[in-house]
Amino acid sequence: MNRQTPLLIIMLLLAATTCWAEGYDTYIAVKGGSFFPNGRSGSATSSENGFGNFSLAYNGEVAVGIRPESYAAVELGVGYYETDASIADTAGVTRRYDAMAVPVTLTAKGILPYGRLEAFAGAGIGYWLSRLHFRRIAADGTQDAERNLNAGAFGYQLVAGADYRVTSRLDLGIEAKWSQVKPEFDFAGTDNLGKVKWEFGGTTLNAALKYRF
């Protein structure tokens, strides 16, 4: 996990406390589930690099929300997901990629209440802190290259889901989110790639626990 993540979560908690003290309808949400890579490219060494050969992974998020009206909310979140792939070429050379990202996002949601159930949909923007750990393994099993690559980029996301009010303060819900972001990584000196942009987005499907102040 990125070393900045705990600091970002602490900042979220401080933001929630401040909003509650100011009298806003505020909540904290903890989410967890699966990350499905976008798979926009079937190659990890083309000019359109992406998660085409990467595995299904897990993800988590902590968010603070403010509801200025019963039908609207603004949510600030810090998430985390990771995925990996091993890709072998015809010469027997294997390239191993371990990818992770910490998205910091701001999302506006429209809410449709119906008794204890609330459906929502929205969109947002954010900044993705991204990392690639690259290893190249020769046909004889020896590792002849290794790089840790870091990059960041702005992206956007779409969300939809529903919450069920269990008590006056506690909600349980589900949320689907689709994101697109393309950080640029510098592979200079490795596989003659130079600087390339990677599609680091995907779809998350989460269960959510929400606590209202």
Question: What attributes characterize this protein structure?
Answer:
64% strand; Porin
Describe the structure.
This protein is mainly beta and 213 residues long. The chain has a single domain (5-212), classed as Porin (Beta Barrel), CATH 2.40.160. Helix content is 8%, strand content 64%. It contains 1 helix and 10 strands, in the order H-E-E-E-E-E-E-E-E-E-E. It has one helix at residues 5-21; strands at 26-37, 57-69, 72-88, 94-114, 117-137, 143-165, 170-181, 184-186, 195-197, 202-212. An 8-stranded antiparallel barrel has the order 1-2-3-4-5-6-7-10. A two-stranded antiparallel sheet has the order 8-9. The protein is elongated, with a radius of gyration of 19 Å. Mean pLDDT is 82; it is low at 42-47.
Biggest sheet: strands, sense, closure?
8 strands, antiparallel, barrel
- Low-pLDDT stretches: 42-47
Share in β-strands = over 45%
Count of runs of 4 or more consecutive helical residues: 1
The order of strands across the largest sheet is: 1-2-3-4-5-6-7-10
Mean pLDDT across the residues is 82
Which class best fits the helix and strand makeup?
A: mainly beta
What is the number of domains?
A: 1
Annotated CATH topology: Porin
Quick overview:
With 213 residues, the chain is mainly beta.
List the helices and strands and how they pair.
Blueprint: H1 5-21, E1 26-37, E2 57-69, E3 72-88, E4 94-114, E5 117-137, E6 143-165, E7 170-181, E8 184-186, E9 195-197, E10 202-212
Antiparallel strand pairs: 1-2, 1-10, 2-3, 3-4, 4-5, 5-6, 6-7, 7-10, 8-9
